[in-house]
């Protein structure tokens, strides 16, 4: 009698497609609705108001107009360019004709999602090409061999260093999508150092996630949210720094516990069943006992590749870069490494193309994840969910209000994964509610940051499924790893938020 075939967890594609269908189903159940939105036109010095019927009107850009619309923001927030995106006008929510997303909308959404994210896809494909060339010439093998000798007995320092750097990037400039570039170069190093794939994912992904969740000066979350709430982002800064440090210590403690557990018994790894596949994907034929010469050519190629990362971080943090500029940077790096590789022109190009093809699954996942947001946006249900949320928290006591805000922003974070998008939509409406219960608006900013950030640990519409596809593992393995930490961080956030209301 043949052995019954074991069922495996669905791939990222299947998980995302199931969520896409569920999102389309929500557009039949949740009423469609819109808030009117206001933008500032710096050419005409006017406010442009778009109502729920998409009818456009203009008003003189004055403080009186803002007061009349119950937008509790100073005029200079608009005239000085601090707030650029359309903001929701409080009290303007209106039901509109239902926009259910049917079969054709669902099948079109992945195509539209792919077109919307083509800049990220190009970046990933170029990165894959570089990895292919660096692997072909043996530079990774030689580098890992040299590194493993130097880090013997101090392996966890690698986890601490990577986590600290990505956390710093997350809390200062919102390092997130850019971390996709880190996996191909760091995963082999973590594997050679004795860690499993989940520890590498946690060091990179959770570093940026904890950093962005407990943002201190991140312009794409805490700064834009504070501006939209009508307060300075420096309010509560010291408290946010202390919370970030404590959260980082807790997260590193959990990662250390798991890494030591796996180090003692490899079968305790949640990705133990995938270990051979992951090793083959990232280490190939690497043999730790074999001595791969670390020649000048290999060293130079690795140095050039490594130098691209601080340049990338500088560009994103200070140079206003996005994926077009990042892709251009890595394309230059690819061309330089091709010349230095010692490979023939034909071999170098074919290796680059072959390396890119290894990440086709990752880029298709990116497009499919975006399609879920497209379906929800086209169904006009996000504003409705925000409206119901504001009705829910109105009139609550201080402590309950703070915790309810955290829960609401966790919920909204699933449907509106863009931190800046959620901030400008929700803050003009949510922040004034803090005044009604006698709390600082800083509480709402922290609830927004921590709630949305907490949900990002597992939000399939965010980066996690793309990350898992890159790492060669599945969502169920990640859930086993992250859910205990997610519970700890949820309790931690509630406690810190309650403490925040007492200060």
From TrEMBL:
The chain crosses the membrane at residues 12-30, 120-144, 156-176, 182-205, 212-231, 237-259, 300-322, 328-344, 351-372, 392-415, 452-471, 478-499. InterPro entries: C4_dicarb_anaerob_car-like (IPR018385), DASS-Related_Transporters (IPR051679). Its main location: membrane. It is found in: Cell membrane. GO terms for cellular component: plasma membrane. It is a multi-pass membrane protein. Keywords: Cell membrane, Membrane, Transmembrane, Transmembrane helix. This is C4-dicarboxylate anaerobic carrier.
């Amino acid at each position: 009698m043949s052995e019954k075939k074991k069922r495996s967890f669905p791939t990222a594609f299947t998980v995302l497609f199931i969520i896409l269908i569920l999102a389309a189903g929500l557009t039949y159940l949740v009423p469609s609705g819109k808030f009117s939105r206001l933008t500032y036109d710096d050419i005409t010095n006017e406010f442009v108001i778009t109502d729920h019927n998409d009818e456009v009107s203009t008003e003189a850009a004055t403080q009186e107009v803002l007061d009349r619309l119950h937008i509790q923001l100073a005029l200079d927030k608009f005239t000085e360019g601090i707030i650029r995106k359309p903001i929701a006008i409080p009290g303007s929510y209106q039901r509109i004709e239902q926009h259910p997303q049917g079969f054709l909308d669902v099948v079109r959404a992945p195509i539209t999602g792919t077109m919307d994210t083509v800049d990220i896809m190009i970046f990933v494909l170029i990165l894959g090409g570089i990895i292919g060339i660096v692997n072909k010439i043996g530079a990774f093998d030689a580098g890992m061999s040299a590194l493993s000798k130097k880090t013997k007995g101090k392996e966890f320092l690698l986890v601490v260093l990577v986590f600290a750097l990505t956390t710093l990037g997350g809390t200062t400039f919102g390092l997130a999508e850019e971390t996709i570039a880190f996996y191909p170069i760091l995963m082999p190093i973590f594997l050679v150092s004795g860690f499993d794939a989940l520890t590498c994912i946690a060091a990179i992904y959770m570093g940026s996630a904890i950093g962005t969740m407990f943002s201190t000066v991140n312009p794409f979350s805490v700064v834009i949210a504070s501006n939209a709430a009508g307060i300075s982002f420096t309010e509560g800064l010291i408290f946010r720094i202390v919370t970030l440090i404590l959260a980082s210590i807790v997260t590193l403690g959990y990662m250390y516990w798991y890494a030591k557990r796996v180090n003692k018994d490899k079968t305790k790894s949640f990705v133990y069943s995938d270990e051979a596949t992951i090793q083959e994907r990232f280490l190939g034929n690497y043999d730790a006992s074999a001595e791969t010469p670390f020649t000048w050519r290999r060293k130079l190629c690795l140095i050039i590749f490594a130098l691209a990362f601080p340049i990338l971080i500088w560009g994103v943090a200070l140079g206003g870069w996005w994926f077009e500029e990042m892709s251009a940077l890595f394309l230059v790096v690819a061309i330089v490494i091709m010349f230095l590789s010692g490979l023939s022109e034909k071999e170098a190009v074919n290796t680059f193309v072959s390396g890119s093809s290894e990440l086709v699954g990752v880029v298709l996942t990116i497009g499919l994840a975006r399609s879920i947001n497209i379906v929800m946006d086209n169904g006009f249900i996000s504003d409705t969910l925000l409206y119901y949320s504001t009705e829910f928290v109105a009139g609550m006591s201080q402590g309950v209000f703070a915790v309810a805000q955290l829960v609401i922003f966790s919920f909204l974070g699933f449907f509106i994964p863009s931190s800046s998008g959620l901030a400008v939509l929700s803050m003009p409406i949510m922040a004034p509610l803090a005044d009604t219960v006698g709390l600082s608006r800083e509480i709402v900013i922290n609830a927004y940051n921590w709630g949305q950030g907490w949900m990002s640990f597992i939000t399939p519409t965010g980066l996690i499924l793309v990350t898992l596809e890159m790492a060669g593992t599945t969502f169920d393995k990640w859930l086993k790893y992250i859910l205990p930490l997610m519970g700890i961080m949820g309790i931690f956030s509630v406690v810190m938020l309650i403490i925040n209301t007492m200060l």
